[in-house]
Specification:
four-stranded mixed β-sheet; 258 residues; Znf_dom_IS66; 7 helices; Transposase_IS66_central; extended; alpha+beta; ISPsy5, transposase; two-stranded antiparallel sheet; 6 strands; Transposase-related
Amino acid sequence: MALFNEAEHEVELACETTEEEVVAPSKRRGKRNPLPADSPRIEVIHELPEHELTCTCGCRKHAIGEEISEQLEIVPMQIRVIKHVRKVYGCRDCETAPVTADKPAQVIEKSMASPSVLAMLLTTKYVDGLPLHRFEKVLGRHGIDIPRQTLARWVIECGAHLQPLLNLMRDSLLASRVIHCDETRVQVLKEPDREPSSQSWMWVQTGGPPDKPVILFDYSTSRAQEVPTRLLDGYHLAKRTTHHEAGGVYGALTMQQP
């Protein structure tokens, strides 16, 4: 499917589905899912024009009911600036040093990024798959000039702050009865002391309880045995199981277990 004709493709599929339903009348068309009940509602009242409120008999019409339909609306991203005003107090009767009100603690000190900006940055990159250079353009359309290098630095610094959460996730993973492991080739174009054509690996581990699954990614330039040895440090294979492809690195790791 081409990139730019996705809409036409989906419409064609819908038409084909409709035709199939006509041929087989026993298959009823599914109902449209209702909009979330917890979403804010804005009620718009539509009244008859004044000249239609008078009946042909001359009497004034009165409301006897109403028809309700709902339409989804999306409010475009709003950008605003939080201006921190720190009051400074001093004594006029003596020469004690002035006292300035404290500023709230920030995720990244001396940065213009508020927690909401950082949350959106991480969500768009890692959940929505939006590269930093595209998020840079999104901000640019709103008149905000933040280079992707700055965005990248914010991502790295957020990663350092989230390390305690990562540690808890790893503990949950290592407590699993079964861990699924896989490694996938990736190519990094700009990496110190490495050619752009060099091969790297993204190691993925999944586990945890069914209601709270854990998925961890770990980047490495190697596919050697020491990588899964490090990732599975503290995991006792004698009592548990790893599911993986038939790779020698995992087999050698199993042989090391007592």
